[in-house]
Write a structure and sequence with these properties.
Blueprint (H helix, E strand, L loop, with lengths): L1 E6 L4 H12 L4 E8 L3 H11 L3 E4 L5 H7 L6 E4 L1 H7 L7 E4 L7 H9 L3 E4 L3 H16 L4 E3 L2 H10 L7 E8 L9 H4 L4 H4 L9 H9 L1 H14 L6 E5 L5 E7 L4 E5 L5 H9 L13 H4 L13 H12 L3 H17 L7 H12 L8 H20 L6 H4 L3
Parallel strand pairs: 1-2, 1-5, 2-3, 3-4, 5-6, 6-7, 8-9
Antiparallel strand pairs: 8-10, 10-11
Helix pairs in contact: 4-5, 5-6, 6-11, 6-15, 10-15, 11-14, 14-16, 15-16, 15-17, 16-17
């Protein structure tokens, strides 16, 4: 029996993690759960799973949460700092890091310092602080097991190949809902259209990131830190069917890939049960019914966010942190109808260009960079800044 803490239990990954727990009651116990502000879902989860601790990041909702759970022997906490403290409980074996965005960084760091196994779904943690997280994981002998379907596929393709050199990682991307739209048409797309992903059901923020291919850019950065490869060893390939979740090419030319239906419960369960493969009732694929699988090169002119992510990790230091902060601001602004789809990369590029470079940032440097990048991005929104993105790539 493994005791797990789920950070972001009301989100897409969190709720699917609870599906895995329901299917494996003899394997997992939900010890702690947290949410940002989805209090009704959090209350329902607490009443079903009876965790030891329930935490709501939005402290204004704490009295309501306490009142709703007053009849249960559950510790009810509030605030971001409480989430970071919650993950250090000695009884917790695995922390599922499924919070959205930069907010997931601090609790993940605290969980690593406490020696917990990390089932990592919060890719922003490695985007913002990949070098720091990697160093801490080594220092504290803390396993980081990927939950993203792509990184889980790479991980599964590496099992048993520890002595063999990776030549290339092939990171697949669905292409999102706008794969075949022209640049002119992309100028006109709406948030409602962008939130209609063809294959996956995800939260709003990550769905927009997928539509803009920033999500894939984040995954490139994440793959670098998870698997210890150079950035030029990571190739992004658009695969609209989302059946080949990713692959590894070895130095002899052999390619190993993991295939499966687009269902996040499989990689979640694999991370929780590794190295065992537990029985599941998840959907199976039939290659004969699929008929064909297609693969395309990504178009960096129509989807410049992917190029921005490569640019950020090539520069290194605190620039990926600025990339993430600017993207969070731009993503939200697009969802709220304040900017157009193609203005997102303009704001992100502008912010990356203005942030002072720090080659070896400390945690405090990253906190400062995040704050500054958000301020710069918000200023771009306020002044309706127009940045010629092509110029950024010719510096």
């Amino acid at each position: 029996m493994k005791r797990i803490a789920i950070l972001g239990s009301t989100g897409s990954i969190g709720t699917q993690t609870l599906d895995v727990v329901r299917a494996n009651p003899d394997r997992f116990e939900v010890y702690a759960i947290s949410a940002h502000h989805s209090i009704d879902k959090l209350i329902a989860q607490a009443r079903e799973f009876h965790p030891e601790v329930v935490c709501i990041a939005d402290e204004s909702l704490l009295p309501q949460l306490r009142d709703a759970l007053h009849d249960l022997p559950i510790k009810v906490w509030g605030g971001a700092q409480s989430i970071a403290e919650m993950v250090t409980f000695p009884s917790i074996d695995i922390v599922v890091a499924a919070m959205v965005g930069y907010a997931g960084l601090q609790p993940t760091i605290e969980a690593i310092k406490a020696g917990k196994t990390i089932a990592l779904a919060n890719k922003e943690t490695l985007v913002v602080a990949g070098e720091l997280i990697t160093r801490l994981a080594i220092e504290h002998h803390c396993p980081i097991l990927p939950v993203d379907s792509e990184h889980s596929a790479i991980f599964q393709s590496l099992v048993g190949e520890e002595q063999n050199e990776i030549e290339k990682i092939i990171l697949t991307a669905s292409g999102g809902p706008f794969l075949h739209l022209s640049k002119e048409d992309l100028e006109k797309v709406t948030p409602v259209q962008a939130l209609c992903h063809p294959n996956w059901e995800m939260g709003a923020k990550i769905t927009i990131d997928s539509a803009s291919m920033m999500n894939k850019g984040f995954e490139v950065i994440e793959a670098k830190w998870l698997f210890g490869v150079n950035i030029d060893q990571i190739e992004v390939v658009v695969h609209p069917q989302s059946i080949v979740h990713s692959a590894v090419q070895y130095r002899d030319g052999a390619v190993k890939a993991q295939l499966g239906a687009p269902d996040m419960r499989l990689p979640i369960q694999y991370a929780l049960t590794y190295p065992e493969r537990a029985i599941s009732s998840f959907p199976r694929i039939s290659l004969t019914e699929l008929g064909q699988l297609t693969f395309l090169k990504p178009d960096l002119e129509r989807f410049p966010n992917l190029r921005l992510a490569y640019k950020a990790i090539e520069r290194g230091g605190n620039i990926p942190c600025a990339l993430n902060a600017a993207n969070e601001v731009a993503n939200l602004a697009f969802r709220e109808g304040k900017i157009g789809f193609m203005q997102m990369p303009e704001i992100i590029a502008n912010t990356m260009d203005k942030v002072s470079f720090i080659a070896n940032p400390t945690y405090d440097d990253l906190v400062s960079t995040d704050s500054l990048a958000r301020t710069l991005s918000e200023a771009s929104l306020t002044h309706n800044s127009k940045f010629i993105i092509q110029n950024y790539f010719h510096v």
